[in-house]
Amino acid sequence: MKTDSNIEFNEVINARKAFTQLEGSGDKYREFYKTELEKKNNALPPSKPFAQVEEILQKESRDIMVCLRTRPLFEHEVEAGNLKALSVRNPFTYAHKLEVRFNGMPKISSLPYEVDYAFGPEHDNKIIYDTIISSLIPLVLQGGIATTFTYGQTGSGKTYTLTGIQELVARDLINRINSPENLVKETGQSKFRVFLSFFEILGSQTFDLFNEREPLKILEDTFGVIQVSGAKEVEITSVEQFLELLKVAASYRKTENTFKNETSSRSHAICRIRTQNTLLQQLEDGKFFLVDLAGSERHDDSKFHGSDRLKETKAINKSLMTLKECIRARCLLETHQQYIHVPYRTSKLTLLLKDAFELATSRQCRTVVIANVSPSNTDIEHSLNTLRYTAPIRVTPQSTKPEPNPNNPATWTHEKMVQWIKSSSKFVDPKVLCPAETGLQLCRLPEGEFIARCLKCPGVTEKGAKIFYLRLWKLVIDARTKRRNETIAKNKKNFT
Ligand SMILES: Nc1ncnc2c1ncn2[C@@H]1O[C@H](COP(=O)(O)OP(=O)(O)OP(=O)(O)O)[C@@H](O)[C@H]1O
Ligand SMILES: [Mg+2]
């Protein structure tokens, strides 16, 4: 007997078949798809020029940037007759998917995905670096924490993007620390020291890529500081040495042959750069994490491989989901002053990046997520998965401002901030430390800049400036913790 669900099931099977046929060159829907794609492309609005990163971050008081990079179609894909199913019009990326209606008629569904920056096949690594990464270097030198992730399906260009960025960071950072304003007059040496380490995380295991894959342990010490015990850290003195070490690390990385990529990276690779300001002893070391994530290979793809690969894929997907939750929760905290649990202890990767997610941190953090996608129609399901993963990470600010909280400086007006500075320090001049900033803007000042401003006031020592910085941040952290405890208590009450 034919039931409704039976009919529906058969229709879906037919639609699937039609979709699979598309991959053959003689497919009956191919011409339709091609013509419709051309029409859609012509009707789309042009790309907007790339906005200034700082403008967006300041205006929306956000710390997280979400970008999409669509790679070019490869020659072998063009030869195989693959079509370009993605259109990039910054800040949108449109995914055009062929669907077959139940009556057998094909249609194209086009969905726009908005991010902060949408890069297309014509944009090279240098443009990406100049637009979104170069502004992270001053933050790191001021004691902040920068993190860059490349996410996406296997073969979508994560390693290509991150390797390019790493090389550009190496050149830019070393040139900057050796620029005349950063040299110590007496010695002619830079006031900054730069250290590099490189790890790989495979499930719950960590390996040192600078020390022939020696196993490492990521641990949280009694002070809550994350230690990578036994990791080799090398001091960098030249661009050439930096580039050479990146090559060494890449050669030790675990790669495997997958359907899409002969040298697919099956691990998360983390390049950690630490910068030390030798003139300001009180300033925390800056950190830059460049993370090349393992491919988000789907279960269907891995089922053709052994059970080990399946386990590996499960572990990768779990850590990618934890990462997404952590980034989003941290973003909501910044933009909505709203407490949400940040589950960074759930995976080794997020534990290592604790500083970027921690509620009780006084460090300035910036995170850039670059999602990589393939434009090929044969990869459309994977690309949609990536777009769906990435889109929710970008939390836009709420339209109404968070209510002013007398205990939380991040919600104070400029006037209230000035009043607090006056009443809290005999030496710090509010006109120098906070000439026009609101509480939120002052709290978003990197530690190095905060201390440098305080040191301009007569009578302020470096230690005194640091204590003053921590005093302000203690208020912010106490207010966040109080809010968290209230939320937990409220949730408990609702539950019982
Ligand atoms: N934007 C691009 N321009 C030119 N070639 C690219 C681009 N992106 C990727 N490629 C090429 O595509 C191939 C696959 O890229 P890559 O190794 O970066 O993929 P991946 O996302 O790291 O995959 P996996 O998850 O399997 O490690 C490489 O040969 C790379 O050189
Ligand atoms: Mg890779």
From TrEMBL:
<feature type="binding site">
    <location>
        <begin position="152"/>
        <end position="159"/>
    </location>
    <ligand>
        <name>ATP</name>
    </ligand>
</feature>
<keyword id="KW-0493">Microtubule</keyword>
<protein>
    <recommendedName>
        <fullName>Kinesin-like protein</fullName>
    </recommendedName>
</protein>
<dbReference type="InterPro" id="IPR036961">
    <property type="entry name" value="Kinesin_motor_dom_sf"/>
</dbReference>
<feature type="domain" description="Kinesin motor">
    <location>
        <begin position="63"/>
        <end position="396"/>
    </location>
</feature>
<dbReference type="InterPro" id="IPR027417">
    <property type="entry name" value="P-loop_NTPase"/>
</dbReference>
<keyword id="KW-0505">Motor protein</keyword>
<dbReference type="InterPro" id="IPR027640">
    <property type="entry name" value="Kinesin-like_fam"/>
</dbReference>
<keyword id="KW-0547">Nucleotide-binding</keyword>
<dbReference type="Pfam" id="PF00225">
    <property type="entry name" value="Kinesin"/>
</dbReference>
<dbReference type="InterPro" id="IPR019821">
    <property type="entry name" value="Kinesin_motor_CS"/>
</dbReference>
<comment type="similarity">
    <text>Belongs to the TRAFAC class myosin-kinesin ATPase superfamily. Kinesin family.</text>
</comment>
<dbReference type="InterPro" id="IPR001752">
    <property type="entry name" value="Kinesin_motor_dom"/>
</dbReference>
<keyword id="KW-0067">ATP-binding</keyword>
<keyword id="KW-0206">Cytoskeleton</keyword>
<keyword id="KW-0963">Cytoplasm</keyword>
